[in-house]
């Protein structure tokens, strides 16, 4: 991640959208050359993404199929997702034999990230990918970039069939409010993340911001996704409720030490705060009972969540060591558009699949 920030004044607010982005280019330290973990985690979801795209297409049979990848970053991982979706729909079009085959729809692929993202690196390979899909699957693919924060509206109302987001939703829209006391002193002095020495007010502030952001994300997509459309969301989560779990804080500790070694004055580092929050798997599918958007129920197959009392549910599977939950959601009704309507109002059906942690061989 790169920001190009200088030591800010303590009273200066930072425009996150203008400065936050993955390291651009194709150099040794670029995101494109250092995102193999993200690529592997996305590849494990390949079948889930293809199945979701196929289900939407078979149910709706649109002449044009619109896909949105939110948080595409600057590497080529997003293009691999595009290929999986197009090939999955292409297989559905071919059917079980020549007599049941039909030409594939045209594909509109919307790649989204913040305006400061290096879209050039992504689109440098776009003609190659589009040409390969045309030759192999007979599909016409139109790719375009949509700069902006996904914590808000990005696309036309009822225009997107499939929304995907991988390794992005744990990034917050802004530094949470409430990280200073009444005398304007930092509550988390010496740390840029939630640690065992943090005041209880610190994780509470991050949780409030996450709940606000995630609900806004869902409401925004609810206005944009067509009835019967789907979402596949994957994000980093904790295995336990303990936010000081060493498996999650070790990297932040190392990053803090590196930053401290790079600066000559402690005051320069103090205003820096991570915009990342790693929620527990349970918090992902359950919010406070006072929140009208999500109500929790008990399910025989795991945790089950009903959204706004609608027709759909969210289910979390049980068992195994957990590290990355995957939310697959389907829009099941239509009660009007706008940011206040859509996905949450008519109901959401979702499967939350948790990927088992792969133990490294020593």
From TrEMBL:
<dbReference type="GO" id="GO:0008168">
    <property type="term" value="F:methyltransferase activity"/>
</dbReference>
<dbReference type="InterPro" id="IPR029063">
    <property type="entry name" value="SAM-dependent_MTases_sf"/>
</dbReference>
<feature type="compositionally biased region" description="Basic and acidic residues">
    <location>
        <begin position="350"/>
        <end position="362"/>
    </location>
</feature>
<dbReference type="Pfam" id="PF03492">
    <property type="entry name" value="Methyltransf_7"/>
</dbReference>
<dbReference type="InterPro" id="IPR005299">
    <property type="entry name" value="MeTrfase_7"/>
</dbReference>
<protein>
    <submittedName>
        <fullName>Uncharacterized protein</fullName>
    </submittedName>
</protein>
<feature type="region of interest" description="Disordered">
    <location>
        <begin position="329"/>
        <end position="362"/>
    </location>
</feature>
<comment type="similarity">
    <text>Belongs to the methyltransferase superfamily. Type-7 methyltransferase family. SABATH subfamily.</text>
</comment>
């Amino acid at each position: 991640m790169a920001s190009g920030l200088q030591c800010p004044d303590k009273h200066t607010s930072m425009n996150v959208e203008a400065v936050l982005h993955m390291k651009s280019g194709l150099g040794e330290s670029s995101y494109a050359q250092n995102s193999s973990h993200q690529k592997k985690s996305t590849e494990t979801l390949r079948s889930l993404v293809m199945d979701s795209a196929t289900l939407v297409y078979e149910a709706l049979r649109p002449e044009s199929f619109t896909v949105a990848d939110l948080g595409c970053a600057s590497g080529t991982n997003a293009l691999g997702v595009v290929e999986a979706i197009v090939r999955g729909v292409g297989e559905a079009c071919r059917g079980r034999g020549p007599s049941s085959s039909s030409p594939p729809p045209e594909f509109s692929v919307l790649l989204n990230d913040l305006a400061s993202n290096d879209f050039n690196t992504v689109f440098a390979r776009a003609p190659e990918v589009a040409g390969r899909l045309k030759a192999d699957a007979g599909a016409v693919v139109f790719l375009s970039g949509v700069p902006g924060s996904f914590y808000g509206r990005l696309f036309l109302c009822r225009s997107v069939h499939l929304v995907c987001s991988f390794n992005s939703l744990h990034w917050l829209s802004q530094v949470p409010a409430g990280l200073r006391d009444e005398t304007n002193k930092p509550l988390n002095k010496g740390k840029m993340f939630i640690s065992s020495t943090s005041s209880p007010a610190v994780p509470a502030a991050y949780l409030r911001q996450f709940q606000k952001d995630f609900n806004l994300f869902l409401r925004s997509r609810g206005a944009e996704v067509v009835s019967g459309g789907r979402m596949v969301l994957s994000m980093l989560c904790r295995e336990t409720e303990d936010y000081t779990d060493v498996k999650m804080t070790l990297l932040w500790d190392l990053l803090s030490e590196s930053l401290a070694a790079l600066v000559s004055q402690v005051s320069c580092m103090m205003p820096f705060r991570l915009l990342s929050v790693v929620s527990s798997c349970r918090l992902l599918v359950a919010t406070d009972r006072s929140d009208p958007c999500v109500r929790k129920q008990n399910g025989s197959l795991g945790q089950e969540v009903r959204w706004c009392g609608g027709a759909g549910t969210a289910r979390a599977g049980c068992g195994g060591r957990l590290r990355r939950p995957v939310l697959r959601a389907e829009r099941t009704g239509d009660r009007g558009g706008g940011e206040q309507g859509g996905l949450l109002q008519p109901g959401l059906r979702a499967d939350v699949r948790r990927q088992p942690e792969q133990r490294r061989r020593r």
